[in-house]
Write a structure and sequence with these properties.
Layout: E1 10-13, E2 20-21, H1 23-37, H2 54-61, H3 67-83, E3 90-91, H4 95-104, E4 108-113, H5 117-126, E5 135-138, H6 149-159, E6 167-170, H7 174-182
Parallel strand pairs: 1-4, 1-6, 4-5
Antiparallel strand pairs: 2-3
Helix pairs in contact: 1-3, 2-3, 6-7
Amino acid sequence: DFVMSGIATSLLLDLDGTLIDSRPGIMESYRVAAETVLPNQSYDPAKVFIGPPLPEMFRSSFPKASPAQIETLVGTFREHYARKGLFNTVLFDSVTHLLARCHHRGVDLYIATNKPLRLSTAILDHLKIAAFFRCVLAVDSIQPPFTGKAAMIGHLLDTYHCSRNDTLYVGDTNEDAMAATVCALR
């Protein structure tokens, strides 16, 4: 428990899969898009792998869909998710308690996420945890967008003068692990 023992002064956190479970909202928006754009085609929700870009997700479920249909599926998904789906995101157990303990002990908390900034901040506000974070950095926080998690984390470390020796990064994917290694974080 590096944070609680005082070894870390800064904690960088991934959002999806680390602090929140966005699957319920994503799957609702996926279903709405599929029923709206391809009402007579079925897919197996259990085989929808969340993580790849939306066009790949829809191509996997609907291999015979035209490029125009895929584009419409993605647009319909995004519109629904931004309006309704994101509010079905749930916080993992004990996250609020952990964030409060870190904050109370003076640990600076940051988010580094591939989710668009507007959606990330809306989710954090909805879940009532936004105030814990010194910064929420998303893939589209700068233009042109960050090229990946490592670039995003490097930017955050430099901007907020976080010591690599006193900073931990917590994520749930191989990209997160590789980014931490590239940025010389534990």
